[in-house]
Structure to design on (743 residues):
């Protein structure tokens, strides 16, 4: 299939050099190109080398690159920080990797309209660093905020631990400037809170994984910075008890917490043992980590107290309270180190990202237990209970050879995805499809919807040069 | 048995910034927490009470808002607390602080074990625990990693020393300063927080304690801070570069000459 694309010749490189300058074209040095052959997906079979990497500094340069690539039929793969977990930034057909790292400025903080406009290569964390002095904050960031770029967040429609209350990236994207696959510069949206002027192309771009356009300017909605925040670590006997507490908190408690993270027994054990953490986890079949934030300390205090009481009424063994950074860090560490802890078992893991309706989480956990037993593989399950997004992560059985793992993993994934589908879920909640999960799309998405996706892609990218081979294959037409 | 735990409120180190001009810490807007090393003292005191019965009283000398640290200690499981606060105490060094804390312990009366953290993460001196012992004229064991036995007459502990461990037995009452391995601190619970909010925390000033006014605060502190500065790392770097075959020779010569001049080769 890749033979329909042309290779990056010396002449093409020359023209790229004319556009961005010699310093900003990486070509012919395999060692330097290697880091751009993969993202954070660990398995090497998903990697692919680019022919060259270009680092533009303006929208106009990107437009010139796209029109050159379109004329010459050369694939272009946009790349942010490369922290993706679905292979989105991997140039599966070679060609040009378009690296956004030089476009890393905050262009405007508009305090009257509560918006910030940034370039796509800005490290997400830096938005809030710049905003805190104005008492404002951007709430859409993922947990990788210290490395990932805003452009990558918009392209993946990233969601963080705080999605229960604040929603995911897409909720905050008000305006985009982008370059189309054919090299046109287009603006969508602006600084409007409401806008139904035509099709919602803006939100079509959000989560498009770099396949429909290259974002060059992003306008995000801001909120007042919460002044107070408290974390609760709640121990339950069973996963079922833990999960059933979640809707109760929102309905009976009338509170939408900022985060509700779930950790199953094996995750908690592995992480606590890894950290030498003495929280009495032995009796806990599952834990919830609940964050409440707000403008006033007293209000946050009332809210965490009623959430804690509800948990105790619903069978919680213990409720721990962390109301300062040091204590909060101690409990968030347990959540953050789960993946690391399982690396002791085996470095070969497949970090999955299934999402189910929240009420289906206990069935999902039970079903995963069954799959884990049948395949003799550990599948720790943790993630964002408040929004049903679970990082169920098969970890290679250390008794297996790598070949056995590669042979068995697809079958484990099929079973996991079938289970997810049977519970009304989808195969990715926030990490995206890329090429890692493409072959599983038809497990959960009906053919008619897949065809709509292909139609969109064909219409906007007639030569299929922008990040080809991701999400769906245009040529798979029915 | 009565366990008394002196604790200190310190700034959250994650948020600490230095004032470039004065070389001191910017405390404004910085959250305060219990000195992290005091948490181990609180934990071992609670465990000993769980084994032997009695009560754990935490005391803290500091500004009025150090009451928050005491309530946090109660949320972890201490039975009660006393805040020791007075303008007259401001500017106290470790000597004056130990003096006042010793007076407060005398007023509480009948101590069994007085358990301190190893040192405070802000001042980093580790002198207050020993200071209390000397003002109260009690036996002292520092760097305690394990409390092996305690009853009304003796206390046996394992101390961490440079070359290993040392087991000491002391008469009671006694003062201990403890290190991390003594016991992992528990987290405050919801029930603990609720209790801590309701408990009355008395505040004692200079008039409530039997102390000599001349030995309080800055006036009573023999230590004088003459200068605060950040040590400068003075490393001068000279870079020798070689980019291709041709430049290697001269670069090596330059480096050899450089080292020879300094009599390093
Ligand atoms: C430790 C860790 C924790 C993580 N936690 C979370 C989490 O909590 N939530 C979450 O959602 N994800 C999480 N991720 C995944 C990842 O960080 C996000 O998907 C992030 O949004 C990717 O951003 P990036 O800049 O690294 O993008 P990349 O990986 O470089 O690229 C991702 C996609 O964006 C496209 N893209 C990049 N820039 C542009 C642009 N300017 N225009 C158009 N397309 C573009 C690329 O083509 C690619 O398809 C985590 C990853 C790690 C390693």
């Amino acid at each position: 299939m890749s033979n329909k694309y042309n290779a990056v010749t010396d002449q093409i490189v020359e023209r790229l050099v004319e556009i961005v300058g010699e310093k900003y074209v990486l070509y012919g040095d395999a060692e330097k190109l290697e880091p751009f052959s993969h993202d954070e997906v660990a398995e090497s079979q998903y990697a692919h080398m680019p022919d060259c990497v270009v680092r533009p500094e303006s929208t106009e340069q990107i437009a010139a690159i796209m029109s050159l690539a379109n004329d010459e039929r050369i694939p272009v793969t946009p790349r942010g920080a490369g922290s993706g977990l679905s292979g989105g930034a991997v140039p599966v057909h070679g060609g040009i990797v378009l690296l956004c790292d030089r476009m890393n400025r905050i262009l405007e903080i508009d305090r009257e309209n509560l918006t910030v406009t940034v370039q796509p290569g800005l490290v997400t964390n830096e938005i809030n660093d710049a905003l805190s002095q104005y008492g404002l904050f951007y709430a859409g960031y993922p947990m990788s905020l210290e490395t990932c770029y805003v452009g990558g967040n918009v392209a993946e429609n990233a969601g963080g631990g705080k999605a229960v209350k604040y929603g995911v990236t897409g909720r905050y994207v008000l305006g985009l400037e982008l370059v189309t696959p054919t090299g046109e510069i287009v603006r969508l949206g602006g600084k409007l809170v409401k806008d139904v002027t035509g099709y919602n192309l803006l939100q079509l771009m959000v989560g498009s994984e770099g396949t429909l356009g290259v974002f060059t300017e992003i306008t995000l909605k801001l909120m007042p910075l919460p002044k107070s925040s408290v974390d609760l670590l709640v121990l339950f006997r069973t996963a079922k008890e833990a999960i059933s507490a979640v809707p109760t908190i929102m309905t009976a408690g009338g509170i939408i917490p900022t985060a509700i993270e779930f950790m199953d027994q094996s995750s908690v054990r592995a992480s606590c043992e890894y950290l030498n953490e003495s929280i009495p986890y032995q009796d806990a079949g599952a834990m919830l980590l609940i964050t409440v934030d707000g403008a006033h300390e007293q209000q946050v205090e009332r809210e965490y107290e009623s959430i804690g009481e509800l948990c105790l009424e619903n069978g919680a063994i213990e409720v721990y309270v962390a109301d300062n950074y040091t204590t909060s860090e101690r409990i968030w560490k347990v959540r953050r180190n789960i993946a690391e802890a399982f690396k002791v078992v085996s470095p070969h893991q497949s970090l999955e990202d299934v999402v189910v309706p929240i009420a289906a989480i206990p069935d999902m956990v039970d079903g995963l237990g069954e799959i884990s037993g049948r395949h003799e593989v550990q599948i720790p399950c943790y993630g964002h209970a408040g929004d049903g997004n679970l990082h169920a992560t098969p970890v290679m059985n250390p008794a297996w050879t790598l070949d056995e793992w590669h042979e068995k993993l697809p079958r484990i994934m099929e079973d996991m995805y079938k289970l997810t589908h049977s519970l009304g879920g989808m195969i990715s909640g926030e990490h995206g499809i890329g090429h890692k999960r493409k072959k599983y799309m038809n497990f959960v998405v009906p053919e008619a919807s897949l065809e709509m996706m292909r139609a969109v892609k064909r219409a906007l990218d007639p030569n299929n040069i922008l990040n080809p081979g991701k999400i769906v294959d245009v040529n798979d037409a029915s | 048995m009565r366990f008394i735990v002196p604790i200190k409120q310190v700034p959250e180190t994650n948020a600490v910034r230095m004032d470039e001009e004065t070389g001191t810490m910017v405390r404004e807007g910085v959250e305060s927490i219990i000195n992290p090393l005091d948490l181990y003292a609180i934990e071992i005191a609670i465990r000993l009470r769980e084994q032997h019965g009695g009560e754990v009283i935490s005391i803290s000398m500091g500004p009025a808002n150090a009451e928050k640290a005491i309530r946090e200690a109660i949320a972890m499981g201490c039975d009660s607390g006393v805040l020791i606060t007075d303008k007259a105490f401001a500017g106290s060094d470790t000597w004056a602080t130990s003096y006042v804390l010793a007076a407060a312990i005398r007023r509480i009366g009948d101590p069994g074990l007085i358990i301190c953290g190893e040192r405070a993460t802000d001042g980093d001196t580790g002198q207050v625990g020993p200071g209390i012992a000397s003002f109260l004229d009690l036996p002292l064991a520092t760097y305690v990693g394990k409390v092996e036995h305690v009853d009304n007459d003796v206390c046996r502990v394992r101390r961490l020393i440079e070359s290993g461990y040392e087991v000491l037995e002391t008469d009671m009452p006694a003062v201990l300063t403890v290190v991390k391995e003594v016991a992992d601190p528990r987290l405050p619970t919801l029930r603990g927080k609720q209790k801590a909010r309701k408990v009355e925390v008395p505040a004692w000033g200079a008039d409530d304690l039997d102390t000599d006014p001349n030995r309080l605060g800055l006036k009573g502190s023999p230590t004088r801070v003459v200068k605060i500065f950040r040590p400068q790392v003075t490393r001068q770097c000279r870079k020798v570069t070689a980019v291709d075959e041709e430049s290697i020779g001269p670069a090596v010569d330059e480096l050899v000459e450089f080292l020879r001049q300094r009599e390093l080769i």
Q: What stands out?
A: The longest helix of chain B spans residues 245-261. Chain B is about 30% helix and 25% strand.
